[in-house]
Amino acid sequence: MDVSLFEKSKDGLTAKLLIRGTTPAFVNALRRAILEEVPTFAIEDVEFRKNNSILYDEIIAHRLGLIPLKTDLKGYRMLKPGEEPGKAHQVTFSLKTTKQGNVVAGDMDSTDKSVVPVYPDMVITKLLKGQNIEFEAVAVLGKGKGHSKWCPAHVYYYNEPKITVTNDPKLLEETRSKYPPQIFDASGKIDKALISTPQLIDACEGVSKLVEIERKDDSFVFVVESWGQLTPKQILVEAVEQLDAQFEDVAGLMK
Amino acid sequence: MIIPQRCWSCGKPISHLFEQFKERVAKGESKKEVLDALGLERYCCRAVFLGHVDLIDIAAEFKKV
């Protein structure tokens, strides 16, 4: 198996990897390990002292849970069943405000400055004059298999395509309208590099001989789009470690 | 009611982008341009913004304080 970095977005949150010489079963195992096994922080318990905003406590608690929090996997660990929660497991957020307008994630005070909302502008609720809100929320590490709020990323993969573009002038005129407009460059010709997403690849397949697409069965483009809690690199490393631990478990059972 | 925290389908965090979207569209920019600029590529996330009706201001008036 051969893994290389194919593309990285400017914000560093999306990484495209090229994985060659493997099977769909392996890349899917990796995808599922990322979705289900990589721990991240999310708010789990909320205690409301006061809330007379229009949204009910339950709705606000749910909205709080969905706020992605920057996650430090080294300083914290997951709570084991039967263990007493302590400083190594959780971070507390508190908020007390009467400010009119949007109450945002960045208004919350965290007990640890390294675990804070990734996007401080995410809206919790909206207050009108005379309305106020006060709560304390506890964030813990959790896994995507427990609730999707703990999912670290959006992950998908597709077979690596081999794209051949002929740009034959006659054929180009005849079939131009059958191709998606995004794939034409400024001079009106098809640019191979613009056929870059799985949707565009599918749309260009089998239309005419202008674009020929061949898919390699043992080669994959693997996309990790992080929601911000961890970097794509951290996510992959942690997923591989979790997968390794699972294999160890199975090996142990076989003895 | 209020803009969802995440996209219903893919889970991308979006609620922090809605204020900008509202402002820029009100200034006359086309919705397509703004959605592209905000990085909402997939049609699931775009649909959340395009189909959203912001009723929280009206609904909040009915809250008994």
Explain this structure:
In chain A, the strands form three sheets. Chain A has a four-stranded antiparallel beta sheet with strand order 1-2-10-9. A four-stranded antiparallel beta sheet of chain A has the order 3-8-4-6, with helices on one face. A two-stranded antiparallel ribbon of chain A has the order 5-7. Chain A is flat. In chain A, helix 1 crosses helix 5 (232-254). Chain A is built from five helices and ten strands. In chain A, a hairpin with a 5-residue loop joins strand 1 (2-8) and strand 2 (14-20). Chain A is of the alpha+beta class and 255 residues long. Chain A has two domains: 2-37 and 153-224, 2-Layer Sandwich (Gyrase A, domain 2); 41-146, Beta Complex (RNA Polymerase Alpha Subunit, Chain A, domain 2), CATH 2.170.120. The mean pLDDT of chain B is 93. Chain B has one domain (15-61). Chain B is an all-alpha fold. The relative contact order of chain B is 0.22. At the A-B interface, strand 7 of A face helix 4 of B.
Distance between the termini of chain A: 28 Å
CATH fold field value of the largest domain in chain A: Gyrase A, domain 2
Give unreliable regions of chain B as ranges: none
CATH class of the largest domain in chain A: Alpha Beta
Mean pLDDT of chain A: 92
CATH architecture designation of the largest domain in chain A: 2-Layer Sandwich
- Most extensive contact: A-B, 29 and 21 residues
Discrete helix count of chain B: 4
Number of strands of chain B: 0
The largest pleated sheet of chain B is described as: none
* Proportion of beta-strand residues of chain A: 25-35%
Could you give the order of the helices and strands of chain A? EEHEHEEEEEEHHEH
